[in-house]
Amino acid sequence: MSTRVYRVPIVVENDDLYMLSSLASQAGVAIDNAELFQEITNARLFNESIMGSIATGVMTVNLMGEVDSINNAALRLFNKNKRTMIGDHFTYFFRQDPVIIDLIKNAETDFAITVEMDVDLNRGKHDTKINISAAPLTDHEKNHIGTVIAFEDISEPVSYTHLTLPTNREV
What are phi and psi of 85, to 5 degrees? Predict the structure, then answer.
């Protein structure tokens, strides 16, 4: 049995080529967007991992003065959970700590890094000593978008352990 192949001429009009070109262009943009979204997601997860791992408390405040983000070390320092802090105005949260309020306001108005050492953090039954710094937070175009505040608990002395790692040098 033999098979015959019939060829049917395909007529392609300019409108069809234009539509195909448009679809190919949209598909390319969609693929690029998916790749960019994945890169941004990976960068965000990387930053969150770092912020969750460091011992220094870090908080960001937007231009409205509301807490945008806070890491685990700061939550432990303030004995709070994230839901109760996100969205609160920093002056409300630090109402017992006028030195901290002034420090953040100075960083915002002077657009400069401000630092206070050995500050009493008034939190209930026991006071905590902290070092605090506040700095303007800017976007990639250097536009002011808020303030980043770092808190270091200095209440208890920190002990460092000396660790010696072997080298790969041959003797």
Answer: -105, -40
User: How many whole angstroms separate alpha carbon 65 and alpha carbon 59?
Assistant: 11
- Kindly state the average pLDDT of the residues 153-159: 71
Whole-angstrom distance, CA of residue 69 vs CA of residue 92: 16
**Amino acid at residue number 106:** N
Q: Count CB neighbours of 145 within 10 A.
A: 15
- What's the rounded Cα separation, in Å, for the pair 9 and 130? 81
Q: What is the pLDDT of residues 39-92, one digit of tens each?
A: 888 777 776 666 666 778 999 999 999 999 999 889 888 888 888 889 999 999
The three-state secondary structure class of 72 is: helix
Tokens representing residue 14 in the block: 């300019």
CA pair distance 122, 72, nearest whole angstrom: 19
The C-alpha R_g of the chain, in whole angstroms, comes to 28
Segment holding 101, helix H or strand E: helix 98-110
Q: Who contacts 87 (Cβ-Cβ below 8 Å, separation ≥6)?
A: 66, 67
Work out the number of other CB atoms within 10 angstroms of the CB of residue 23: 10
